[in-house]
Amino acid sequence: MLDRSPNSAQSYLTAPLSRRASIAVDVGGVIVGGGAPVVVQSMTNTDTADIDATVAQVAALNRAGSEIVRITVDRPESAAAVPRIRERLDRLGIDVPLVGDFHYIGHTLLADHPDCAAALAKYRINPGNVGFKDKRDRQFTQIIEQAIRYDKPVRIGVNWGSLDQELLTRLMDENQAKGSPMTAREVTREAIIQSALLSAELAEEIGLPRNRIILSAKVSQVQDLIAVNLELALRTNHALHLGLTEAGMGSKGIVASSAAMGIVLQQGVGDTIRISLTPEPNGDRTREVIVAQELLQTMGFRQFLPVVAACPGCGRTTSTVFQELAQTIEGDLRRNMPVWRDRYPGVENLQVAVMGCIVNGPGESKHADIGISLPGTGESPAAPVFIDGKKAKTLRGPNIAQDFQALVADYIEQRFGRSA
């Protein structure tokens, strides 16, 4: 962590902070931890046994920017489908690593389906349900031995909704015997941390190298996520996956996840993240990927897409033209990025401004690479365009929006084209 003394040149208000030193883990060619950029991942909600649906959703998530995709492996039919899903994705040129999510019978599925074990890039196991009583360590060991056999990393993912009850009960009893006991919430947090650390210790004793282990501690409350992960980061140098589980739907889930993970990331903690949004019925699963990217980009940790600055609108901007243009430009940029990343190296650093009146319009447009100040209420029907800080031209007439879109396309070609 950084020096936060008064004389320090950096403070906790500075973004982004330096990253916590963690062990790097190679997940199918994607590096998690070790100072690598924070990785965005997501999870399908299809029945994995439905190969067509799963391939389609993995492809969509990857196109949206998910760098690792987790799939459920909950029964023999799902396990049997995994190698076929991997083959289909490879034929499509989609090399995104697949993570198998195992609960209860992962030891059996991995043993009975070696092609599945080999096709996955990582296994995710939950120490709270990998096995119970005398079976727990034995079945945990069987999964770790499969990971060693196939040289696969493992995420040991603790979730307080399925926390090891024996561990929790023991810690509660020990706490009660203390003169100044902790609250039940604090004991639960400690149980989550210990579950992760003890499981990682056991995995290493079995023979899984530390650079093949990622830890996560999932909770559903913002303050708990912050407290648990900052404490976990103090006790281990394992790579850490962040996520607010059961975050919720829509703006509630987005705000809660961003508030919790933003604070943890600001402290330099977290190597890979997932925004666990409950989708609307028949909603777009890729929304969680977009939110994760926007969180990292807004905080200054990574750059995924060109930034489109647009004013919020007020009584001076009764026209919806600037809103529609900003939406169109942003949509075009996101839609084209999968192709543009190769065609226009560096285009993700582009800054575009679409403003609705003369108050901040010209100034904001000058700060952007290319910007436009559309006429507000009562203003002359003229829209000055600024390119690289200088006024380049003024657009007029009914086709201002289309004309500006063409200027943006030309600017991208001229600045980021390979011949540029």
TrEMBL record:
Binding site for [4Fe-4S] cluster: 311, 314, 357, 364
Top-rank EC class of the record's enzyme: oxidoreductase
IspG TIM-barrel domain: residues covered: 24-292
Catalysis performed (reactions): (2E)-4-hydroxy-3-methylbut-2-enyl diphosphate + oxidized [flavodoxin] + H2O + 2 H(+) = 2-C-methyl-D-erythritol 2,4-cyclic diphosphate + reduced [flavodoxin]
Limits of the IspG C-terminal domain: 308-408
Cofactor(s), names only, from the UniProt record: [4Fe-4S] cluster
GO BP terms, alphabetized: isopentenyl diphosphate biosynthetic process, methylerythritol 4-phosphate pathway; terpenoid biosynthetic process
Annotated metabolic or biological route of this protein: Isoprenoid biosynthesis; isopentenyl diphosphate biosynthesis via DXP pathway; isopentenyl diphosphate from 1-deoxy-D-xylulose 5-phosphate: step 5/6
Gene3D superfamilies reported in the protein's UniProt record: Dihydropteroate synthase-like, Sulfite Reductase Hemoprotein, domain 1
E.C. number(s) listed in UniProt: 1.17.7.3
Residue ranges of the TM segments: none
Cofactor binding comment, as recorded: Binds 1 [4Fe-4S] cluster.
MF terms in GO: 4 iron, 4 sulfur cluster binding; 4-hydroxy-3-methylbut-2-en-1-yl diphosphate synthase activity (ferredoxin); 4-hydroxy-3-methylbut-2-enyl-diphosphate synthase activity (flavodoxin); iron ion binding
InterPro entries reported in the protein's UniProt record: Dihydropteroate_synth-like_sf (IPR011005), IspG_bac (IPR016425), IspG_bac-typ (IPR004588), IspG_C (IPR058579), IspG_TIM (IPR058578), NO2/SO3_Rdtase_4Fe4S_sf (IPR045854)
Domain of life, source organism: Bacteria
Keywords: 4Fe-4S, Iron, Iron-sulfur, Isoprene biosynthesis, Metal-binding, Oxidoreductase
PANTHER family documented for this protein: 4-HYDROXY-3-METHYLBUT-2-EN-1-YL DIPHOSPHATE SYNTHASE, 4-HYDROXY-3-METHYLBUT-2-EN-1-YL DIPHOSPHATE SYNTHASE (FERREDOXIN), CHLOROPLASTIC
Function: Converts 2C-methyl-D-erythritol 2,4-cyclodiphosphate (ME-2,4cPP) into 1-hydroxy-2-methyl-2-(E)-butenyl 4-diphosphate.
Recorded family membership: Belongs to the IspG family.
Protein name: 4-hydroxy-3-methylbut-2-en-1-yl diphosphate synthase (flavodoxin)
Organism phylogeny: Bacteria, Pseudomonadati, Pseudomonadota, Alphaproteobacteria, Hyphomicrobiales
Gene: ispG
